[in-house]
Sequence to fold (566 residues):
Amino acid sequence: MKIISSIHEMQVEAEHIRLSGKRIGVVPTMGYLHRGHTSLIEMARKQSDVVVTTIFVNPTQFGPGEDFDRYPRDLDRDRVLAEDAGTDYLFTPSTAEMYPAGFATFVTVEGVSEILEGKFRPTHFRGVTTVVMKLLLITKPHIAVFGQKDAQQAFILRKMVRELNVDTEIIVAPIVREHDGLALSSRNVYLSQDERRRATSLYQSLQLASARIQSGDRSVDSLRKEIMNLLKAAQPLQVDYVAFVDPTSFREVDLVAPPQVLALLAVRFGATRLIDNMLISVP
Amino acid sequence: MKIISSIHEMQVEAEHIRLSGKRIGVVPTMGYLHRGHTSLIEMARKQSDVVVTTIFVNPTQFGPGEDFDRYPRDLDRDRVLAEDAGTDYLFTPSTAEMYPAGFATFVTVEGVSEILEGKFRPTHFRGVTTVVMKLLLITKPHIAVFGQKDAQQAFILRKMVRELNVDTEIIVAPIVREHDGLALSSRNVYLSQDERRRATSLYQSLQLASARIQSGDRSVDSLRKEIMNLLKAAQPLQVDYVAFVDPTSFREVDLVAPPQVLALLAVRFGATRLIDNMLISVP
Fold:
């Protein structure tokens, strides 16, 4: 595995790989890799000839007061995990090179970036779309793999890539969970033992929604009420949202309808904000 | 010369050209080609193996009440001019394919897009940066050629390409002028005979600024006053701005200083808005 931190060097290398006729797969991450990330790298490995994993804790997607400074970092460990999962190039640019003084260019996807996560984190998706556009233009991939864990991000990135005509296929890989259902996240390390236990209420809520929908409940008001009862029993600091959206438009619905609905949650336990979601088949 | 209107077809063709090892040069235009455009095509011809000229009257860079509907169009004539100047591919996408229903992704360069032209045309540069990003991603060029006539646009596009890491070199070609100094523009056809004559005051103003600076005048207040006197004698409907900027930062200056200053004008004659500029050496 080759480690590259220079943008120019990575771009020249990517161009050479493309000119040699090989397919590039990229997995953009913020590091502190877990099995969720390695599943993305393995998926890229299967669908391309050369796998580039990027590690960059992107300051522009953190709001003021968010956890940019304390976001967990461990490059030595990441190096081993990335290579074991099948990475050929580890791209680790510096903040100074990614965002030189006077940086002022942003990519925005209006509308869908302002709801749900975007409502609680107003500049978050602008930071995500801008950095992903940069990373795609630097690594020149045929495919880019993202996790379904960040469902709204995946939807927004697909829309960005389609609307700006980026010649990269976006692949979204399933959520990887702990044995008790908690979705893997680098932020799970923030949880105390007690919070970790209560955090399983997110997955339980999604399972409850799925069960109620299978048995005929179609009302989002009623589903939300049941989920709120379950979540409140786990004593969260705050429930940011419990939402049901049409997965093709990401518009919130009042009544769930066939064929599918996407249920999304954001819940805070202490200082830690967790998100989870589930694509539910509607009979 | 091959004419392509499908985005997908153009992108596949561009990828094949790149994979064959050839250099692509693109010249994005809104059509109604004149010698200004053909000079850009000729410059692309010299610096690349395959020249793509794009013709697309981009709705997102026109404001409400601007001249999108009446902007001059003549594809039959453009086809001949583009081919004669050395175009290999003429890319003429449809508005419906460039901006499908629900389109919501924009590229913005903050700050410099809001001054001068941006002040009088508030969403103009967002439309330009968005469409140029799309055109660059569709045509995959090694170089892209723009005209110095739109000096602020060229500065903004260079900043966008650098900050988003687009692997395309931006080349800016000199202004082409009529025998009496009027900068070529597709919009010159709007001018009545009388307006056409008075419009030479733009170039005369820039020449006056240059002469005053060569003879030692450094004060923008004094330069602006002299230019306003000259312009007013030509009875314009309105002078939008007379500005002097540092060409490296595009920041307005109060005192011109070595090595160079960029003088910019926007003046309306009747319903027609004309812009011009000159890079002036400062002794």
About this structure: The mean pLDDT of chain A is 98. Chain A touches chain B through 31 residues (CB under 8 Å).
